[in-house]
Amino acid sequence: MDSRVKAVTFRVGAFRRRIAWVFGLQFLIVAIVCILGIYNVAPTALVIAVIVLTTAIAWFATRREWRPVRALARLVNRWDGQQLDPDALHLDQMSTHTDADVASLARGLHGFATRIANYNQRERNFTRDASHELRSPLTVIKMSVDMLAEEEGLSDFGARSVSRIKRAAREMEVLVEALLILARETDSVTDHERFIVNDVLVRQLESARELLTGRPIVLVLEESARFALEGSAQAFSVLCWQLIRNACQQTEQGSVVISVTHGAVSVSNHADPPIPGDNSRPLRVHGADRHGFELAIAQRISDRFGWPLELHTRIGEENIARIRFPHPLPANAPGGG
What we know:
- By secondary structure, the protein is of the alpha+beta class.
- It is built from 9 helices and 8 strands.
- The strands form 2 sheets. The chain has a 5-stranded mixed β-sheet with strand order 2-4-5-7-6. It has a 3-stranded antiparallel β-sheet with strand order 1-3-8.
- The longest helix has 50 residues, at 100-149.
- The protein is elongated and about 115 Å long.
């Protein structure tokens, strides 16, 4: 904090004392003019005028004394929990007549805002640096796997291993993209592009089906509406992939249904009932016991872009994740694609 602020000495109870003086003087003046009016020393009109005038002066004086508290209240009310400029408190401009309680509140809010800002900056720097460092080895892994998949005489076990490595690399690539989205500044140009939700989902499902090869899960896209959005198509794609992946994690076999309605996209898992007489039990593969890491990433992205995420569970262990978009656009809007 600025050394000039530390050097200022604030008086405890100064606000209460000044308010007491204001209302004390008002009471004294009103009492005097009332007595003068009772003994007909002053006319009634003058008594009323003095009472109104002293009340107005008392109100303005109280309003002036309350100004620092009102400024802090407006600042906190505008704070969305993400960004708060500590310098907006203007602690170095506070008057020496400011009450010590108000100054203490301002100092505490300044320190809290500074810690939050520093924490957010450290988190963004770490996420951005870690994501960039992961991109290079991921590229090497993907290129090596593609070359290995073309190797002649590769055994079935080797082919399955290559497929698993390719799937894991793709999942890590999507995770890195999600981290980069969360670390990116909010005023990025890509956050204001126009895209059609249905088209992005079709491309996303094509990639997801490749990763689900060999698993008894079917991806179904139900389109009862088409609409566009203004935002980040990449963020929307990553958000939907996290929800699809989470639904697949919760389903041993069955289907994952992606439904598009006007202004909303929902992802639900439908597990197939066990076959009577079949004592075999499908293996829980690909981390089906995860504790919702995909949902945590999805929640962060939805909060970042203002796309509310709702989670519901129905009878039969059917989990439904629904994203609502407050400002959907027509699919045929200019620039949609």
